[in-house]
Amino acid sequence: MTQGWKLLHLGVVVKDMARSVEACRALGAAEVGEPGAMGSGGVRTKVQFVRLGDLEVEFFEHVEGQSTIGEFLARHGEGVHHMSFEVADLDAELARLKGVSRLVMGPRETPSGRRIAFVELDSLAGMQVELEQLPRRAGRP
Fold first, then answer.
1. What is the rounded CA–CA span in Å between residue 114 and residue 92?
2. What ranges do the domains of the chain cover?
3. What angle do CA 58, 60, 63 make, to 5 degrees?
4. CA distances from 130 to 41, 58, 108, 111 (A)
5. Is beta strand 44-52 parallel, antiparallel or unpaired with respect to 36-38?
6. Hey, what CATH topology would domain 6-133 get?
7. Which of 46, 64, 82, 110 has the CB geometry, 3.0–4.6 Å to 11, for a possible disulfide?
8. Which residues fall within 8 angstroms of residue 126, CB to CB, at 6 or more apart?
9. How many CA atoms lie within 13 A of 88 on its CB side?
10. pTM of this structure
11. Beta strands in the chain (DSSP E)
């Protein structure tokens, strides 16, 4: 049961980041984050967040090297790569999903203290689900 899951963002793979961001601006994007990059060892992917109304979109553009983003683009073309949800207990959710999904990455801790994992279900046409457990703060259960 996904009770308590909160949608954080959609991850979308695109061929042209600048073009996609400009399209969002034309739609009236409330916020456009600074472009960034991720990867190492000859792998490079551009990444940029855009807020459209209540929805945050994380755009990915494959630049070079062999990466999961490049593989997704080759198999599926441009489109939704993942849906990201905040969950209260990452380990409990991964245990619950074990029989119906395949762990793709994680669980691991990000530099900001979030714990994340990606799972994939064949019935979602290659789209992944990212689960994020935010760090506990004082006064927050």
1. 16
2. 6-133
3. 160
4. 24, 12, 12, 16
5. antiparallel
6. 2,3-Dihydroxybiphenyl 1,2-Dioxygenase; domain 1 (3.10.180)
7. 82
8. 72, 75, 76, 120
9. 6
10. 0.85
11. 6-14, 31-32, 36-38, 44-52, 55-64, 79-86, 102-109, 115-120, 128-133
Check: CB of residue 28 under 8 Å from CB of residue 1.
no
Please write the tens of the pLDDT for every residue from 103-117: 999 899 988 889 999
Block residue for tokens 């959710």: 93
Is the pLDDT score of 141 beyond 50?
no
- Enter the tokens of residue 125: 């046409």
Residues with Cβ within 8 Å of 32's Cβ and at least 6 positions away in sequence, in order, are: 21, 24, 25, 48, 49, 50, 51
The tokens describing 92, both together, are 């409990």
